[in-house]
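Workshop exercise sheet. Pairs work together: one partner reads the sequence aloud, the other fills in the structure field after running the prediction. Swap roles for the next sheet.
Pair: D.N. / O.F.
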Amino acid sequence: MLKKSVLLTLVYAMLLVFTGIAQAAPKTKGIYINQGTLEDTKRLTYLINQSKAVGINTFVVDLAQTTRNYQKNINLIKSNGLRYVARIVVFPDGGNPKQLKSNAYWEGRFKLVENAIAYGADEIQLDYIRYSTKQPPSAQNAKDVKQVIKFFKQRLQAKGVPLQVDIFGEVSFKESPRIGQNVELFADTIDVVCPMVYPSHYHPYEKHSAEPYNTVYKSLTSLKSKFDKMPFKLNPYIEASNYHYKWSNSKKTNYIISQIKAVEDANADGWFVWSPQNHYDNLFNALKTRGSSNSSSKSGSKVEIQ
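Structure field:
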């Protein structure tokens, strides 16, 4: 017979679940780190300290080649309580038909994945897993890409490591037959989808850059509308700045706030912020300005770029 104290503990735990008091897993709040930044211990330490201060909990870190310093600085990230997601570029600048159908090529890229897991990767994120934009459009292109994703998924599933896949922002709305990305087709082979919903990448540029909230929100809700029940987690990439325009830091801060709020209002599972050079001070200021990245509600006001 169970002791009274054990019974009380079980009853309390059940009450937490049924009353909704039990806390859900924290949403992903991450930044992208290139390998050069990862190797620079001083700069990495700065980003770790600033990130922890504003609630960022994940670093997406490039792994293009193994180095002596890589493991040391990954340990620094993980010892500070941050999740390490390894970003692996599968087909630099997009693949050609020979690469897309070469098991030997896939195996070569998977060696990087194995290295990342050995370094302690919590998840693997595949980028540039697509055809080149020069590829003639065809429905077969997405089927070819899916076979590559399936190869990585089966290998990672055996190791108990979740698979993330980056897709173009336009794929949130419809299949891209040229690069071979189709989120509905890919759905049963991935754990997390990361649409790159950068307002700077949508035509017309001026309109979408001025309306970052609407651009991000419509992209994510369009993607979600394709499914009765989401078969994967949704962690979109938003951007720290818009390369088309030389804005002030305050304008960049509002731009980031607007995108984050759109992600929250679309009820995604979190976000990653992209800066190729890893310049994140405006992001840190944005999160400090808001108090926290999840403090606003759907009834809150939108921040638009004027």
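Discussion prompt: The chain has one domain: 28-290. What would you look at next?
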